[in-house]
Amino acid sequence: xxxxxxxxxxxxxRAEWIGHLCGLCLALRDAHGHLAxxxxxxxxxxxxxxxxxxTGQRTRIAGPCALRGLRSATVATGEGARxxxxxxxxxxxxxxxxxxxxxxxxxxxxxxxxAATRLAGRWARHAAADAAALGLDTAVLLDAVARxxxxxxxxxxxxAVTEPTETATAAAFAHTAVLAERPENIAPLTEAGRxxxxxxHLLDAVEDLPADERSGAWNPLVATGTDLAAARRHxxxxxxxVRLALADVTWASRASGRLAHRLLVHELDRAVQHxxxxxxxxxxxxxxxxxxxxxxxxxxxxxxxxxxxVCCGEYEGxxxxxxxxxxxxxxxxxxxxxxxxxxDCCNCCDCGS
Length: 353
Description:
InterPro entries: DUF5685. This protein is about 60% helix and about 5% strand.
């Protein structure tokens, strides 16, 4: 949901953000092996950001990585990165298990579904062990995931559908205050996490709405009779709520809290604007979306990354075939306050004109 580019973060904040992203990836690798690095995600690194903001940044120098152009980097380390890895792996294991059970995409093949189920179980067990060492009970997260399908079948209220996601993210955000030994932050971060979870679920529904309407797939907006105007009101209220909750959080220093504030206030608002701006555009794509198989998807993913298409333009998801915006396309500069110029290859706003 939160994917800032260099239009919206100054050099120092962008380096810090990349450090948390790489720190999460390396924490997954070190604790669970290279394959676990696929659980790395932009929203998960917020856990690492919040711990660092409350305690002061802990970093180390990481060696060259192909995804950084074979450059070394200063990356986040310590309990914040470990907690982010645990949360990301728990949710990835639950998602993988669901896809295997539903036979989605390449997992329609029984052999692949069985392998995915075994992998999901191993990830869940390893994440639970790591979480226990950090004082987090992953049962809260897994219970929220398990309750979601039942609510989707019976709920008539949009907020009832988003409740499990709210509960899971509230627990994760609150535990950053526990690790930071700042009990005064538990209540406001619980509230910020709850509203962040609501937004994550809501924006996902908004972005998937056109495709879900074409395919007949379940969508919370359609199922609960919520139009885009009402969904936007919920989203704006949640953004405001996160802003107010963060105002009550005590950071280690003003400088330590800059990235957390930027991501959870400004970038969150941009994510809402972006999602609803695209939802308002009529779709001309009436053809059914055709996914790719496992091997074809892997090959396509390599091409997308090596040619920078995932950064610099619209592309089709390597496995799903769904249209996606490049990472730099999500910046929505809106006047580019504090922006030093556009990404040379993207031209995704008019900062430089």
